[in-house]
């Protein structure tokens, strides 16, 4: 397979999964707003830093960067074409990639991506309203899952499919840490310190729901949601498909089907060790955001190794 085509397949799957998880990320905040009492202060701004777009946001909103309102932040995350990780940019990027490799993937995949593109153009502005936002986000998630289902059901298990799997697993691991980061960050600020633990547990419940993991958490853990248990489930569970460890293990199973690249194996084993050795009990007592940032740095290095080994070598 041409390295250009392999690169496109890898990035196509990443952009689709990024779009889905950006919708889920905004869903964390939207669901929390609905669940929290009016007396609790809710801030959307930390979510910009969670996706690593703080500098871009400040350039786009130089006057109001720190005091940005909900609408500015949500528009930036969902619709702003200047934001390289916005929902619209991710879907448009996936569509442009697919346009150049349409003969590589089934026609149904093109139609599904095009439907998402047209839906965002037609209904995107409505998503800024709290009344319609969850409906919009759910439609995006459903559309992305349809694409994933079509890829899983209709694509031959050749080397191109392995690059799709590789991109999907890496992007999901990264976005799971970002959604966890959002849930652990300062989105909710209780006025009374005695309420902090209760609100923190509500935040983690929203994180689990946004990752479609709440029912699986209850099935595996069988205890009420706490920061420690949610961290352990989303970081280290071997059976939940969106957990960081599951995604990394999937990458580990893909690599033997591809040409060997020792640098990729080395970086993957490093981040697997970091995740496996983490102590959720310790993380829960501190701010887990620093640890999530650490994983994201290692995942970035893993991506660089994949690009160097398979696409630019």
Record the strand order, biggest sheet: 1-2
Query: How many E strands?
Result: 2
| Count of the domains | 1
Helix content: over 70%
Tell me the major beta sheet.
Answer: 2 strands, antiparallel
User: First CA to last CA: what distance?
Assistant: 14 Å
Helix count, per DSSP?
15
Low-pLDDT residue intervals, each spanning 5 or more residues = none
Strand content: under 5%
Summarize the helix and strand pattern as letters: HEHHHHHHHEHHHHHHH
Q: What is Rg?
A: 19 Å
Give the CA-based shape.
Answer: globular
Overall pLDDT: 89
* SS class: mainly alpha
Defining key terms:
mainly alpha, DUF403 domain-containing protein, ATP-dep_Glu-Cys_Ligase-2, DUF403
Describe this structure in words.
This protein has 313 residues and is mostly helical. The protein has one domain. The chain contains 15 helices and two strands. It has helices spanning 3-35, 45-50, 54-60, 70-78, 87-100, 107-123, 130-154, 159-184, 196-210, 214-221, 227-236, 244-254, 262-276, 280-285, 289-311, and strands at residues 41-42, 188-189. Strands 1-2 form a two-stranded antiparallel sheet. Helix 1 (3-35) runs parallel beside helix 8. The two termini are 14 Å apart. The mean pLDDT is 89.
Short description:
Residues 1-311 form the DUF403 domain. This protein has 313 residues and is an all-alpha fold. 72% of the residues lie in helices and 1% in strands.
List the helices and strands and how they pair.
Layout lengths: L2 H33 L5 E2 L2 H6 L3 H7 L9 H9 L8 H14 L6 H17 L6 H25 L4 H26 L3 E2 L6 H15 L3 H8 L5 H10 L7 H11 L7 H15 L3 H6 L3 H23 L2
Antiparallel strand pairs: 1-2
Pfam families: Alpha-E
Protein name: DUF403 domain-containing protein
């Amino acid at each position: 397979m041409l390295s250009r085509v392999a690169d496109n397949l890898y990035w196509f799957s990443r952009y689709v999964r990024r779009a889905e998880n950006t919708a889920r990320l905004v869903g964390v905040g939207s669901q929390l707003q609905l669940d929290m009492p009016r007396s609790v202060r809710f801030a959307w701004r930390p979510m910009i830093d969670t996706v690593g777009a703080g500098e871009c946001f400040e350039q786009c909103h130089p006057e109001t960067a720190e005091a940005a309102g909900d609408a500015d932040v949500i528009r930036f995350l969902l619709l702003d074409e200047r934001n390289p990780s916005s929902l619209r940019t991710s879907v448009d990027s996936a569509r442009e990639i697919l346009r150049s490799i349409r003969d590589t993937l089934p026609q149904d995949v093109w139609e599904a991506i095009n439907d998402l593109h047209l839906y965002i153009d037609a209904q995107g502005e409505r998503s800024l309203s709290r009344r319609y936002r969850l409906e919009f986000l759910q439609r995006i998630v459903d559309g992305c899952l349809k694409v994933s289902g079509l890829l899983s059901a209709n694509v031959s298990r050749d080397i191109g499919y392995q690059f799709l799997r590789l991109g999907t697993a890496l992007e999901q691991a990264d976005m799971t840490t970002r959604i966890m980061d959002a849930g652990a960050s300062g989105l909710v600020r209780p006025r009374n310190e005695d309420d902090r633990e209760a609100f923190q547990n509500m935040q983690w419940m929203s994180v689990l729901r946004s990752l479609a993991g709440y029912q699986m958490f209850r099935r595996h853990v069988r205890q009420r949601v706490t920061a420690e248990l949610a961290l352990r489930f989303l970081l280290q569970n071997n059976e939940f498909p969106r957990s960081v460890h599951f995604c990394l293990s999937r990458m580990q199973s893909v690599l033997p089907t591809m040409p060997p690249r020792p640098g990729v194996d080395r970086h993957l084993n490093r981040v697997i060790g970091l995740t496996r050795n983490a102590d959720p009990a310790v993380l829960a007592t501190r701010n887990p955001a620093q640890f999530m940032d650490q994983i994201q740095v290692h995942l970035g290095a893993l991506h660089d190794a994949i690009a160097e080994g398979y696409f630019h070598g």
